[in-house]
Amino acid sequence: MPSIYDSLDGRRYGNLQKYLNPNPVQRWLLRRYFGRVVELVRETGARTILDVGCGEGFTLKELREGGVEAAMVGVDNRPAALAWSQANGIAQSPLNAADAHYLPFPDSSFDLALCLEVLEHLPDSGAGLRELLRVARDCIVVSVPHEPFFRGSNFLRGKHLRALGNDPEHLHAYSGRDFRRLAAAHAQVVWHGYSFPWQIALVRKAG
Known about the structure:
Elements: H1 15-20, H2 24-44, E1 48-52, H3 58-65, E2 71-76, H4 79-88, E3 95-97, E4 110-116, H5 125-135, E5 136-145, H6 149-156, H7 176-184, E6 188-195, E7 198-204
Parallel strand pairs: 1-2, 1-4, 2-3, 4-5
Antiparallel strand pairs: 5-7, 6-7
């Protein structure tokens, strides 16, 4: 595997830096976060899962290793990330290049759609949520950074200091209230909780 700073476009941040960083605190936070995600996914009983914004496939890997028995597919708008995943055997699931705003699947194609750490990057988060709900048969699991704690933790560890800890790729900053309001505007929020410095929601389609 590349070093933690060999991101796919040369930046010293992003998915590879996050998931391959050997820092024990960061790895513990990620283990706790993915533990909650896997728990939620297993509770849904989903047999088919779409991971939107799958990147290099680490979430698909965590689901598989967490005992989730389902047919899983990943999509991301960065072909280089998908190619890296396949070359390094990370996802071990079908991967497709696609825009989260326009998913190439019919309505209700999957029992569950996942979208983790993606909505804050989308120009229109609401459109992304609607598209997730369109392709999901039952429910979706979504997560975003919990602000202002996410950027605060970045700042305290010397990351993105000029932007006061804000990730330069983030187009939106969601407090707990903001995130619940966004999700509830489109469907029923079944559960909303926190795994510092992230927040996670299980959202069920209306009707």
